[in-house]
Design goal:
With 401 residues, the protein is of the alpha/beta class. It contains 13 helices and 13 strands. The strands form two sheets. A seven-stranded parallel sheet has the order 3-2-1-4-5-6-7, sandwiched between helices. The chain has a six-stranded parallel sheet with strand order 10-9-8-11-12-13, with helices on both faces. The C terminus is likely disordered.
Length: 401
């Protein structure tokens, strides 16, 4: 199939969790024989941190504004089997309006931030999607499952919704040799988010303060410049995906933290989960409903709620952590790669296409019934008019006689 995607970014993983899952899925789609074009708004902050310089498995098109490429992009989209727009795409709502007018391709919306989108849509339309647009898509794909899927159907009128969780490209994320400059007891990789900061303070920074002789590493963008970090915490604003395996494999344990809005919805695994697991690194995570659908707590990862429980995780024996990490890696390669997500995506396309066919068939049937009824009414009106004319003529004849 020919698939055209309008996404936040493919070229840079700086400050976002979209780029690496897109890369994993698009590489898998290419290997499965599909042709993908990805449109990305060329913004300065991604241009300064571009870490995807070769893209042999898709056609990446950077553009300055929607108006600048509208005609060309819509022509390509019209010739596609599938057109996708996604969360946080600049001018995404305008793009969606144009894509929803296309009758040929299957029209898909992919939200990689579903609980956050739904909460903000309750307050008004967003730059990247409008509330009224959601029911118009043939398919909505959600990064999270659980409550988000229920809300999309019941509150927002989405006709066909499927989960499409985070994933990993095992060609990129795999065990490598530890790197001296990255060695640490506990690492955390994540962009700054206000609704995640309390967890970071409790489960990472306070842990570092209490383990002053151990080394910690925090990688992520957008943290306030004026913040003071514990002396034993190494800060990296950005580590390119090619270096992620070295970071994970240099960490005795890595931490996963979930944004409050995502955790409240549940079934919301970060792509970092699967990337760390694919590298064979032990994971300690906060809890959210549905976590045990992806990894088995106590067997494939550790769950913690506060400083004490993270410290307890760090006290585990190396052999125990390594055993847990091996099990998590095996499960990740079996269930959570870009290939599995690409297969899920293709199955969702087929399901939506079949449903669209039923809806179109129902529409055509209704349209046909309407036309037949109108025709019958017209015939009836003609007959009535003819009968009235006959009666009028008879009356005139009788009056004349």
């Amino acid at each position: 199939m020919k698939i055209t995607v309008f996404g936040l970014t493919l070229s840079s993983s700086w400050g976002n969790g979209h780029a690496t899952p897109y890369r994993a899925i698009l590489r898998a789609l290419h290997r499965l024989g599909h042709q993908v074009t990805f449109y990305e708004r060329d913004v300065p902050y991604y241009a300064r941190h571009r870490d995807f310089l070769q893209w042999p498995y898709c056609d990446l098109k950077l553009y300055e504004s929607w108006d600048a490429i509208r005609s060309l992009a819509l022509a390509e989209a019209a010739e596609s089997d599938i057109v996708i727009t996604a969360s946080y795409v600049p001018e995404g709502a305008r793009i969606a309006d144009a894509l929803l007018e296309l009758e040929g391709p299957l029209r898909v919306y992919y939200d990689l931030d579903t609980p956050i989108t739904l909460q903000r849509l309750a307050e008004g339309d967003l730059e990247y999607v409008r509330r009224r647009q959601l029911p118009e898509f043939d398919l909505v794909l959600s990064w999270t499952g659980g409550d988000a899927l229920v809300r999309l159907a019941r509150e927002f009128g989405v006709r066909h919704v499927r989960p499409l969780f985070g994933c990993v490209d095992p060609d990129v994320y795999r065990p490598v040799r530890p790197r001296t400059g990255l060695r640490c007891e506990l690492s955390y990789m994540g962009t700054y988010a206000a609704d995640r900061q309390a967890k970071l303070d409790s489960m990472f920074l306070e842990v570092a303060r209490q383990r002053a002789t151990s080394r910690f590493l925090l990688a992520g963008a957008l943290y306030p410049a004026e913040w003071q970090w514990p002396a034993n915490v190494q800060r990296r604003e950005h580590i390119a995906p090619a270096e992620h395996p070295a970071l994970y494999c240099s960490s005795r344990l890595t931490l996963n933290l979930t944004r409050e809005e995502m955790a409240a919805s549940g079934y919301c695994p970060s792509g970092r989960f699967f990337e760390a697991a694919a590298c064979g690194t032990a994971i300690v995570s906060d809890w959210f409903v549905g976590l045990d659908s992806f990894f088995e707590p106590g067997q494939e990862l550790l769950v913690a709620r506060d400083t004490a429980e993270v410290l307890h995780a760090l006290d585990r024996a190396d052999a125990e952590l390594m055993h847990m990490a091996r099990r998590a890696r095996e499960r990740t390669l079996d269930e959570h790669t870009g290939y599995q997500r690409a297969q899920s995506m293709l199955a969702a396309f087929e399901s939506a296409r079949a449903l669209r066919g039923v809806n179109m068939q129902a529409h055509l049937q209704t349209d046909l019934q309407t036309k037949v009824l109108a025709s019958l009414q017209s015939v009836s009106q003609d007959r009535a008019q003819s009968a009235n004319q006959s009666r009028a003529q008879s009356n005139l004849k009788m009056e004349a006689a």
